[in-house]
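Deliverable D4.2, example record:
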Amino acid sequence: MSERDTAQELLIIGLGGLGIRTAITLRAALEQHGNSGPQERLSKIRLRAIDSRPNPESYLSVFEGHDPEGFSLDSTEYFGLLKPNNNPWDKVIEDAKLMVTEAEKLAANKPVIEVSRTPDRFDYRAMIYESKERYRLEVRKFLNESTQSENFCGKPPKIVVISSLFGDAGSLAYLELLSILEEISSEFKFESVNSYLISPDGFEGIFRLNDYQTAKYFSMVDSIYRLNLNELIQKLPLNQQLLMVNEKNFEEKYIDLFMMLNEVSIGIYSNTSQDLNVNQISSVETLNQIIRLELLDNEKCLEIKKIMSDRCAEDPIFFEHIRHFAM
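Output generated by the structure prediction step:
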């Protein structure tokens, strides 16, 4: 079998701020350590970053002061869900007047105050709603750019998706991405969709997380459970991994975001490279002490939902947070 017959393209999709920064770090690790030597089997690594910000420059600030080699994000690799000078609620209200059910439900939760406030969960939902068609076209474009066309003899590409479950744009964009991939799965061939969904565990200190982020996490797990995973997997080669960080096992007393991104990307790198036949990097040896991956299937979702229910029963304020973030 020739190298051309066994070559495989890796498509990395980073969603939201943490997902994008992790995707950038993962690509750098693969290109610097895992895509060289006689066992090289990746024909190409391509990245698409998706978030609500107008431009990609801000995602690179975390890498300042470190070796910049490989840590890059070109403007052509970035897709902004929110168009400049565009109010996504305009589309929602317009469709609600046309009695579009989803728009009607969303419009009923439109924040009263329009200016000088921090966007809330419903603003991000409106953004996802308004960008749906552009989002679908972007995903199709990204897959169409793959070298794995009908004229290419290599293996179908592998897709890696990275997102946190305790943010806004990234987690909501993940649910929409699953819908898009399911919709177009009969048109595009890909070996698998490997989702790495980052839990709040280990990030509390870095991001100063509070009950709001915890409630977002629980509500996202509930939304994923209600997708009917068993049925979805029949249509889409989906493998969802819940990624947790054991912050206590870091040797350093001070942990910054770059260090955390590096460890998370190593965890994803190690898990992804098992069947890509790429070389392991030395720091993977500490993987089991810092990174934990668990299959996020229906059973795991139910386990997390039980923790959520117990917390809600004990804390009425937290229960209200869950109600607010529920899909």
